[in-house]
């Protein structure tokens, strides 16, 4: 990209669009920028859109709220229907046993245990590693275990937590980590440090992948002080695909791990908890106490086998689609600044047959400096995307409502109504997550909807001036 000066007033350019000077064919192919509101949300539950809105009942829905919304396909459903089952509490379900053996091999661990959910798996790990009430674990202040799991470690296990500050890439400062470790046990004044928890990929920080050197250093530090390292690896398989390494390469730097089967891997339910054999033996007892001892659960484990066997490599599709959306289809673009309003423009070279000449057509996309829309492409590492809305007149919640509805003139501009479901997110961001239910076509439709909403918002602001 490069900067040039344009002397045509920005308002006049936008009027050209409104009056049809720019071909309708190209009116919805431009990228977007949208505003920032003071959001303290981690995320909100999406509100249903009123189907009475124009075209909403027949609109195409692109659900980017989470990769937990995936549904099992035909092959997975067939495997579940045909699964051989037994009583898993007695250790007699052959499909569960096969899944547990398979997971242990994939993760490079001695043993693995099938658990109903990631939250339960993390709680079990805390209970096994911190065996006495009043023990302490060290976790990131923006970790899923700390933010989203209802403080179960304190509620149910009596385990105290101390925080380290998560950095933008999901890591934390090792000096700060070391400063949080308690010494002098059994001094009556302090809890006993037992466990360090890491999260990979990091959810709140936008699917960031923890660097291998960081994990190695955490493990060395923990070993020095006799602490265990547990990885909340709900999306650890995304990290392995992004780093192009085997899962076992990542997990050699941890003692235990929990890996969700019900996110990008597409199973309807279940998490694998893995670690040393004695850890898993104790984990079985904790799972039973928490109500996670299930019977003929091979019906669900069959889906997990397909998830671990067939669904890992396809995660790269989700990563690629997230990057495509983040880029907004911004190909062959040039940035210009208008002398009159210091606007930023995107230029598309469009051949207008009526003039038999190639001209530059520009549309005002990003309001006056600072821009409305901001995304850090370096942070788009996996299937989670966060982008910032920097216009104070449009909050993330309002933006998500616009994306989830069908706006006036949308069907005429886009050829159909499109509802794109996203979440407002902590720090004034909007969060979108790709998964096996989202195709490249869905992604392109979401880009068009983003651009449509941007144009509508820019036009409203111009009319208000």
TrEMBL record:
Keywords: Lyase, Pyridoxal phosphate. Its cofactor is pyridoxal 5'-phosphate. GO terms for biological process: glycine biosynthetic process; L-threonine catabolic process. It comes from the Eukaryota. GO terms for molecular function: L-allo-threonine aldolase activity. Pfam families: Beta_elim_lyase (PF01212). One of its GO terms (cellular component) is cytosol. Residues 63-328 form the Aromatic amino acid beta-eliminating lyase/threonine aldolase domain. NCBIfam families: GntG_guanitoxin (NF041359). Belongs to the threonine aldolase family. This is Threonine aldolase 1.
